[in-house]
Amino acid sequence: MKNTVSLLLPILFPMLCGILVGLLPALKDESKRRTFVLSSLILTFLFTLWQLLLKDASLYLFTLAPKADIAFSVDSVTRLFASLIVFMWLMSGIFSFEYMKHEKNHNRYYCFFLLGEGAMLGVAFASNYVTMYLCFEWMTLLTLPMVLHSQTEEAIKAGMKYLLYSFAGAFAGLMGIPFLARYGNTLNFVPGGTLDMALVEGHEALLLGVAFAVILGFGAKAGLFPLHAWLPTAHPVAPAPASAVLSGVITKAGVIAIIRVIYYQFGTAFLSGTWVQTVLLSIALLTVFMGSSMAFREKLLKKRLAYSTVSQVSYILFGLFLMHPTAMTGALLHVLCHSVAKDGLFLCAGAIIYKTHKTDVTELTGIGKEMPVTIWCFTLCSLALVGIPPMCGFMSKWYLALGSLASGIPVISWLGPAILLISALLTAAYLLPITIKGFFPGEDYDYSSLTKKEPNAWMLVPLVILAALAAFTIFPQPFLSLVEGVTASLM
User: Fold this and answer.
1) What is the pLDDT of residue 104?
2) b/e map of 412-440 (b: 16 or more CB within 10 Å)?
3) CA torsion, points 322, 326, 328, 334, in degrees to nearest 10?
4) Whole-angstrom Cα distance, residue 451 to residue 3?
5) Ranges 83-92, 405-414, 433-442, most confident
6) What whole-number distance in Å separates Cα of residue 218 and Cα of residue 257?
7) What is the pLDDT, as a whole number, of residue 26?
């Protein structure tokens, strides 16, 4: 591989721009700040796509300790997740230009918004465990201020919970470094795994325990039970654009780390068929059902969407833990589907809050009459998460169910599709009534007081784009080819 210094551009450029937003007095002017942030997001998008098109690109920076290099590279996983990160950050950023008008401390928000994007891209571009871990920790620290943004007592408590759960999970993830350095050939990411089976012999039980702790730890960022509680606490207090990236993108940092640990470090040959796989599959299915059930009971709109994220991201983890090619394809499809749909839903919620100040589901009767475009976007994204054909969630759940049935794992092979179906029904039950009551408020609705409250183009354009993408399975082949390419490189 050739040493490509330009690989640092997608990581350092948004971070530098974030620092400038925080320091330059001239950017306190709203118009100048908006132009600067929008330019930063677009250039980061273009720089990232440029690097993703490079073949055999890698960059070695320095060595911290034996086997512990700081280095970046591009592979199929990087291409999938990095392109998703910059696109979703761009959509949330555009939406925020109008939304943040009713918030304070704009420069501080955009400073950490851009810093967080750079750290998240570092996780995607990392070429070894040590680099990924360091970027993972920096991403937690740099996105924390978005949770703390309002500085209310509730926000501070939510931020502390986010920090506690993230650090506890990352500490478990840190455990993998010395053990993989001792029993593996390298800490670099190698498809199939890096364990030296001659060294592993006689220590299998120890390494299985380490693998379980590491995967569960990184699962905290993905909302995996029992380290999921930060999600429904942090999302409601953060500004809606921050909630969108927290749910749709930052949870995927946990997914990236788990893919790297299972498929690039320990290897499926070592983990498949063990108690680790069985327990992780059971926890993932429990999280799917629990998250959907809690979302069904929750009345606060953003908190309902947060519980939904707990459930939906565990669809992805369930597919990864099956360690089957078809299930892997379904999991990666659901990475795309969930990011698009959940970003769209959180931004719709933000538009509703911004225009009406309504935060409770029970207050949204007739909202479709007041904000028809917004609620149509909400509906399309909801249908995608439910998995109604031809929306994106149908294809991802179809592949997950087929992969589960084909896995042959006792009980899990049939229980998985059953729980996915029950969760889909619960998803319909907690999302679609918002649309139904929004467009069909009933005879008691006061039509005489009806006023249109649709947001402006800064908000509507990202909503329409995300809602349109939620229906991508009408023409599924480009997306299916993309994720099948990633699957082929891993299995």
Assistant:
1) 83
2) bbeebbebbeebbebbbebbeebbebbee
3) -110
4) 59
5) 83-92
6) 6
7) 79
Q: Which residue has the higher pLDDT, 256 or 364?
A: 256
Domain ranges (residues) in the chain: 1-271, 274-491
Identify the pLDDT of residue 300. 86
Rounded to whole angstroms, the Cα distance separating 145 from 238 reads 9
Q: What is the pTM of this model?
A: 0.91
| Whole-number Å distance between alpha carbons of 162 and 333 | 27
pLDDT value at 258 more than 60:
yes
d(Cα 286, Cα 174) in Å, to the nearest integer? Answer: 25
Cα–Cα distance measured from residue 461 to residue 252, given in angstroms and rounded to the nearest whole number: 24
Q: Note the pLDDT tens digit of each residue in 95-141.
A: 999 888 887 888 889 999 999 999 999 999 999 999 999 999 999 99
Q: For residue 226, give the nearest of 284, 177, 277, 181 by alpha carbon.
A: 284
Q: Exposed, middle or buried by CB within 10 Å (0-12, 13-18, 19+), for 379?
A: buried
Over residues 170-201, the pLDDT tens digits come to 889 998 899 998 998 888 998 888 888 889 88
Contacts of 423-426 with C-beta under 8 Å, sequence gap 24+, read 423/288, 423/289, 423/291, 423/292, 423/311, 423/315, 424/386, 424/387, 424/393, 424/397, 426/292, 426/293, 426/295, 426/296
Question: Could you tell me the CA-to-CA distances from 270 to 276, 410, 488 in Å, in that order?
Answer: 10, 19, 19
Q: How far apart are CA 126 and CA 135, in angstroms?
A: 8
3-state secondary structure of 11: helix
Strand partners, 73: 58
Closest among 190, 312, 188 to 251, alpha carbons compared = 312
Select from 8, 112, 105, 110 the least CA-distant residue to 51: 8
Give the CB-side neighbour count of residue 356, counting CA atoms within 13 A. 24
The terminus-to-terminus CA distance of the chain in angstroms comes to: 22
What DSSP letter does each residue of 180-205 carry, written as one string? HHHHBS-SB--TT--B-HHHHTT-HH
How buried is 409 (Cβ within 10 angstroms: 0-12 exposed, 13-18 middle, 19+ buried)?
buried
Cβ 109 vs Cβ 146: under 8 Å: yes
| Cα separations in angstroms, 262 against 103, 192, 282 | 41, 9, 17
Question: Can you tell me whether residue 2 is helix, strand or coil?
Answer: strand
pLDDT tens track for 272-290? 889 999 999 999 999 999 9
Radius of gyration of the chain (CA): 22
134: Cα separation from own chain's centroid:
18
For every residue of 260-288, which 3-state class applies, written as one string? HHHHHHHCHHHHCCCHHHHHHHHHHHHHH
